[in-house]
Amino acid sequence: MGELRPLWHKETSARLVGEHVREMIDRPLADIEALLVGEAAPTS
User: Fold this and answer.
1) How far apart are CA 10 and CA 31, in angstroms?
2) Residues 42, 36: contact at Cβ < 8 Å?
3) Which of 12, 28, 31, 32 lies 20 to 30 Å from 38, alpha-carbon distance?
4) What phi and psi, each to the nearest 5 degrees, are found at residue 40?
């Protein structure tokens, strides 16, 4: 995404609501849901 972001049309960037961080990959579904609703802090 970091490489693609500068190539996006301005309207595309304006409509983007947010991005999901890569650290959610390979995590249990319950952990991902907690991160999305803000009930957990991501691990570093």
Assistant:
1) 33
2) no
3) 12
4) -140, 155
